[in-house]
Amino acid sequence: MFCCRSLELCLVPVRFEKGNCGVSIMRSGEAMEQGLRDCCRSIRIGKILIQSDEETQRAKVYYAKFPPDIYRRKVLLMCPILSTGNTVIEAVKVLVEHGVQPSVIILLSLFSTPHGKLGPLPSLERYVHPVLPTHFGQKYIRRG
Which stretches make up the Phosphoribosyltransferase domain (predicted)? Predict the structure, then answer.
């Protein structure tokens, strides 16, 4: 698909194709749905509700609703704030259980902490700027 190490060097346009779908991780991912619909009016959107346990930080799926043919589609996984990455890892596991290949999942995220690099998911398509401004994470994202 795409191969670039830095967003400064390579901004790759995404081609709108029939068969793409979005999956928002509730509740914050729903904020990205309108922007996706503005670009692709008839795109199908699924939802998944995942909550992390306060003590163990393990993610648990409470609800998942996807288009019935999601296994044939490219999936735009919407999670605007990536803290530890546990929620996205669990969401990808659920998508794989529904027949989606990890190579067709593209993570859409706006902000990430240094902990949210998603090491266990090397095949997930993502772009993270190499310089992470720590002042944003210190001010707005609190762990635990």
Answer: 17-116
Tell me which of 12-16, 36-40, 73-77, 114-118 is least confident: 12-16
pTM for this entry: 0.74
What are the residue ranges spanned by the domains of the chain?
20-140
Strand order, beta sheet including 105-108: 59-65, 44-52, 20-26, 74-78, 105-108
* Whole-number Å distance between alpha carbons of 84 and 65: 24
Cα angle vertex 34, ends 64, 28, to 5°?
Answer: 50
CB 95 within 8 Å of CB 75: yes
Calculate the alpha carbon distances from 59 to 37, 106, 128 in Å: 28, 20, 22
Greater pLDDT, 22 or 134: 22
Distance CA 12, CA 127 (A): 10
CA distance 126 to 131: 15
Q: How far is CA 68 from each of CA 45, 64, 74, 95, 99, rounded to the nearest angstrom?
A: 11, 12, 13, 12, 11
For the domain spanning 20-140, the CATH number is 3.40.50.2020
